[in-house]
Write a structure and sequence with these properties.
alpha/beta; 10 helices; 26% helix
């Protein structure tokens, strides 16, 4: 068994918390193994004065890390799944998805004023076009400001009075032990979470079978099913970082059924399409992860078999766009 695993990570407090958590779990699972962190500054960390949607999207947070992995300078990378593009460079894939934290958005406001009580013309800070479009659809009187930087920086700006409220991912706030600053957790009907929000993904090289086996214990079956389904939907809609619309979703599994609520928004929040998808699955498939795709020659028609190499055994390919049933669509 290998003696060392090198983890590539961004240097933000949240990214380091996530990488340190993976490191501690590996050390507990494999006593005697050396696990080290390599900090990598990404393009997304360098560009702080321009909205991400205008410079390439959240894929900018993983590009340099993936390049280091392809050069074998690191072995794995830990990502927030909401930041991970739907396709990977050749030779890399998503090795596992951890148990999902709270997927909701969190509102942090001055004087603990709840969303419905914020005054007309309130200044709201967020770096997410997804959040902006949904909020503007409900409260077009709000003034939205771009808010970049790590969680501590955003909290400081709120306390300095630069904003009346800011919106962050609840998972990140909780992981950093800052939940006492949350005014309220936003109902998904008000702010539908980002695809994959709350889950961590561990990326690695496809051909490193030993490493894939070593990190397999991180996989949480239900979380992987939900996040994979959401990402398949995103890929099918082609609502990537440079699309003028934004796709959001939340999903769950129960009684061997996968269900999701999703929406696509125009950039200014003036129009949207919302839908619910429910999909029956074969008994037990969620708990038999991972399995190889049974297609001998996967093609783009099945989304390159989800995460390139590992998919569910429910069908030959995870074709959410082909096999989704009981779809209800409401245009507004």
């Amino acid at each position: 068994m290998r003696k060392e695993i090198r983890i590539g990570t961004r240097a933000s407090a949240l990214a380091l918390w996530q990488a340190e958590w993976v490191k501690s779990e590996l050390e507990k699972k494999y006593p005697g193994m050396t696990v080290s962190l390599t900090k990598i500054k990404t393009t997304g960390d360098k560009i702080l004065d321009v909205p991400l949607s205008k410079v390439g999207g959240k894929g900018l947070f993983v590009k340099e890390i993936e390049e280091a992995m392809l050069r074998s300078e690191i072995d794995i990378a830990v990502h927030s799944m909401k930041d991970v593009p739907t396709f990977f460079p050749d030779g890399l894939h998503l090795g596992c998805i951890t148990k999902r934290e709270d997927a909701r958005d969190a509102l942090l406001s001055r004087n603990k004023v709840k969303f419905k009580d914020l005054p007309k013309g309130a200044n709201i800070g967020t770096s997410s076009l997804r959040r902006q479009t949904q909020i503007m659809n409900i409260r077009p009187d709000f003034v939205i400001h771009q808010l970049r930087g790590n969680v501590d920086t955003r909290l400081r700006k709120l306390k300095e009075g630069q904003y009346d409220a800011i919106i962050l991912a609840a998972a990140g706030v909780k992981r950093l032990g800052l939940a006492e600053n949350v005014t309220e957790y936003m109902d998904p009907e008000l702010s539908l979470p980002a695809i994959g929000q709350g889950a961590l993904g561990i990326e690695c090289r496809v051909d490193d079978r030993e490493l894939n086996d070593l990190i397999a214990f991180f996989n949480h079956a239900e979380s992987r099913v939900c996040v994979t389904g959401e990402r398949a939907l995103l890929r099918r809609l082609k609502a990537g970082a440079r699309c003028r619309s934004r796709a959001t979703a939340r999903s769950r599994t129960a009684n061997f059924r996968w269900s999701a609520s999703w929406a696509v928004w125009t950039a200014n929040g003036s129009s949207r399409i919302r839908s619910k998808v429910r999909r029956a699955t074969r008994s037990g498939w969620a708990w038999n992860w991972p399995r190889r795709c049974s297609n001998a020659a996967p093609t783009s028609s099945c989304g390159k078999c989800t995460e390139r190499t590992r998919i569910t055994a429910a069908t030959n390919c995870w074709r959410i766009h082909k096999s989704a049933t009981e779809t209800q669509r409401r245009r507004e």
